[in-house]
């Protein structure tokens, strides 16, 4: 699959202005975007599950996974089913970032930002595919994708998500003992299926329980939600 890496998103991850006057940096970013595209080996999968709201959290039926936290319960309040997805750009991207860390910090930072924009673009594509399936089945809409670490949904569920999707075998995606996805330019996420007409909550800083204590916002950036 070929997809566009949005240069504006790359600049956002680099925490710089949308318009750079430095021609050398502009050229370096453009070249790095092309380089990242050649490195990407996108692999992804998703699966639909029914859910049940319990005192312990949102139970994913047929599995041992329970989604805990007020934010994910609120996010899925209008859903009876969810999709769980996982996607990775592959190990080559990680290796190239590590390589440039040894010879050029600037190049490494730019490549990292390009790869981050790439995995988000890939997830947008996957989310669109899921939405097509949901609408074709007669449902009204989907919620935006919600990843472990967003709101108060902990990242300690990463390994269980990967296990129930069989992601290590199918797409080579694993998690470290600290629940960091490996390869690092990877994403897992939960998307709710909305069967009736409602006002769908948008991905927005005001809807995040960590709005006032977000580390990203302290740095002057954000996760991609409208702020």
Automatic annotation (TrEMBL):
InterPro entries: S-AdoMet-dep_Met_synth_prd, VitB12-dep_Met_synth_activ_sf. Signal peptide: none annotated. Keywords: Methyltransferase, Transferase. GO terms for molecular function: methionine synthase activity. The keyword Methyltransferase applies. Its EC number is 2.1.1.13. One of its GO terms (biological process) is methylation. This is Methionine synthase activation domain.
């Amino acid at each position: 699959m070929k997809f566009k890496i949005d240069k504006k998103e790359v600049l956002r991850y680099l925490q710089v202005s949308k318009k750079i006057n430095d021609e050398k940096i502009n050229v370096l970013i453009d070249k790095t975007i092309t380089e990242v595209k050649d490195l990407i080996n996108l692999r992804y999968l998703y699966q639909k599950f029914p859910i049940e709201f319990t005192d312990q959290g949102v139970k994913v039926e047929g599995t041992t996974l329970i989604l805990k936290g007020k934010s994910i319960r609120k996010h899925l309040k209008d859903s009876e089913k969810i999709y769980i997805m996982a996607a990775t750009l592959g190990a080559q991207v990680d290796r190239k970032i590590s390589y440039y860390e040894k010879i050029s910090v600037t190049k490494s930072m730019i490549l990292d930002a390009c790869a981050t924009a790439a995995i988000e673009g890939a997830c947008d594509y996957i989310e669109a595919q899921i939405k097509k399936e949901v609408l074709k089945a007669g449902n009204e809409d989907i919620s935006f994708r919600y990843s472990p670490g967003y709101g108060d949904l902990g990242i300690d569920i990463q390994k269980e998500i990967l296990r129930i999707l069989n992601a290590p075998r199918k797409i080579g995606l694993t998690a470290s003992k600290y629940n960091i996805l490996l390869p690092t330019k990877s994403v897992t996420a939960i998307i709710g299926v909305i069967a009736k007409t409602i006002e769908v909550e948008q991905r927005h800083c005001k809807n995040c329980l960590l709005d006032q204590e977000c580390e990203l916002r302290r740095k002057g950036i954000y996760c991609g939600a409208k702020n």
